[in-house]
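Anyone up for a design puzzle?
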């Protein structure tokens, strides 16, 4: 095969995302080689959606590698974890120095950092690229978050920026994130915010349906109206569409869907990492736990009959009250996510550009929202806010929504309606803005039973003390550390 006939890039893995990314690349003028472990999947794609296009399928990894221009660029669209390492083990012996492997799945950033170091040590380049947008985004333009071997960026930049979504200002929703596993970490946080967003919107739907007594068509109209406001976003848009969608028998499909929700792990991974970094991710953690609780359908049915409760008396919430609560809670979700990104950047020395990340998320991805421009602006200033909610714009937005927000959560509690994410967001805000929290008692308790020491209000921070609370203990105290 002559060099002129060789492909620009290869995609390994032809599930929904892989297949649509290939078609996206080809539509932008790139020739693409493809491979799937199950060869029949490759053949079906080549004979179907890829027919008559600059897409060629191969039955072996050696053939795939031989079909590529140098430096070879191979994008893996396979399940995270061991499958990625298995593919690398097979691919590496076939590659030459400075060839590039790109992991476009949802890998753990720790695994990606390990792979970057390993491949660079043997003369290869490795990129962990978060890709968001689902099936439609992959085909028409996703948000892409690449990180890892910086030397690879000049060779893949044009392809990635060409296939990425485009923001209103004409810029591609793709930018280099940083070293190691930073790209996959940013995608993980994106998915965590996505979990929070979806739970919040579901709770807003529940309020309108069960507390305000709205029919589905009216709820659809409410969400359509909200999508022409500060709440404009992809998830609000599709929620309006979902509420209007009819089943084959003419009934509303939403009413025929079982109230259980699955998950693939990126939300849980966000919570795990928040604990490692010591960053409160209350709302997102609540969203993850609510999915777990929703899955226990039989248990919930049994519990509901065991604890029969009549809904208490409450004033029916108005749509504006729900709007304000949803908007404020969403701001908390994004604020927690960006707080986590900032902490990770400092912890791992990534030098993340938070403004750039907000701009990447403006289009193509699942959490694209109109206020991401405001977030980008907040982090573009020389003096960045210590916390997103302390930015001048968002500070006023929260103040304006607070009365409705707290009122709605109170009404739901009195009425016996669960609003776990709204409540979590509100309590996070109250804790964040409390000059004094009851953690002094926590420290006293820890020192009482375990001699874990405490700091004092009348001494400088960083000095630790131990009290002999019972008069029978000694003066020996535990070492001071936080995990």
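Challenge accepted. My sequence:
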């Amino acid at each position: 095969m002559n060099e002129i006939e060789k492909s620009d890039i290869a995609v390994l893995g032809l599930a929904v995302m892989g297949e649509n990314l290939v078609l996206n690349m080809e539509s932008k003028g790139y020739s693409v080689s493809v491979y799937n472990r199950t060869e029949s999947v490759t053949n079906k794609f080549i004979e179907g959606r890829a027919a008559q296009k600059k897409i060629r399928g191969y039955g072996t990894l050696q053939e795939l590698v031989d079909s590529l221009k140098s430096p070879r660029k191979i994008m893996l669209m396979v399940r995270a974890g061991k499958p990625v390492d298995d593919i690398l083990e097979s691919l590496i012996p076939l590659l030459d120095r400075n060839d590039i492997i790109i992991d476009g799945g949802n890998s753990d950033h720790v695994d990606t950092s390990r792979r970057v170091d390993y491949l660079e040590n043997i003369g290869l380049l490795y990129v962990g690229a978060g890709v968001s947008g689902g099936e439609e985004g992959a085909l028409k333009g996703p948000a892409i978050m690449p990180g890892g071997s910086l030397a690879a960026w000049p060779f893949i930049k044009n392809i990635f920026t060409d296939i990425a979504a485009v923001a209103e200002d004409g810029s591609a929703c793709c930018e280099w994130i940083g070293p190691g596993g930073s790209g996959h970490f940013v995608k993980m946080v994106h998915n965590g915010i996505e979990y929070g967003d979806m739970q919040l919107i579901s709770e807003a739907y529940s309020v309108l349906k069960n507390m305000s007594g709205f029919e589905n068509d009216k709820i659809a109209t409410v969400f359509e109206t909200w999508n022409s406001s500060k709440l404009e976003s992809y998830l609000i848009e599709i929620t309006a569409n979902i509420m209007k969608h009819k089943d084959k028998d003419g009934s509303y499909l939403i009413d025929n869907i079982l109230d259980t929700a699955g998950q693939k792990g990126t939300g849980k991974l966000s919570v795990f990492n928040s604990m490692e970094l010591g960053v409160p991710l209350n709302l997102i953690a609540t969203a993850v736990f609510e999915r777990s609780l929703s899955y226990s359908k039989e248990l919930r049915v049994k519990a509901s009959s065991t604890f029969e409760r009549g809904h208490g008396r409450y004033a029916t919430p108005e749509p504006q009250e729900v709007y304000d609560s949803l908007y404020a809670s969403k701001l908390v979700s994004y604020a927690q996510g960006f707080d986590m990104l900032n902490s990770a950047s400092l912890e791992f020395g990534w030098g993340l550009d938070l403004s750039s990340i907000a701009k990447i998320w403006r289009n193509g991805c699942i959490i694209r929202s109109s206020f991401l421009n405001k977030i980008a602006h907040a982090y573009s200033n020389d003096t960045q806010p210590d916390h997103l909610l302390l930015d001048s714009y968002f500070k006023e937005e929260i103040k304006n929504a607070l009365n409705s927000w707290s009122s709605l959560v109170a009404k739901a509690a009195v009425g016996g309606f669960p609003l776990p994410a709204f409540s979590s967001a509100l309590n996070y805000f109250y804790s964040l803005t409390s000059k004094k929290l009851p953690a002094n008692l926590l420290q006293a308790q820890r020192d009482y039973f375990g001699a874990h020491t405490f700091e004092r209000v009348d001494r400088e921070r960083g000095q630790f003390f131990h009290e002999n609370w019972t008069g029978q203990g000694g003066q020996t105290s535990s070492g001071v550390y936080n995990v």
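A detail worth pointing out: The radius of gyration is 25 Å.
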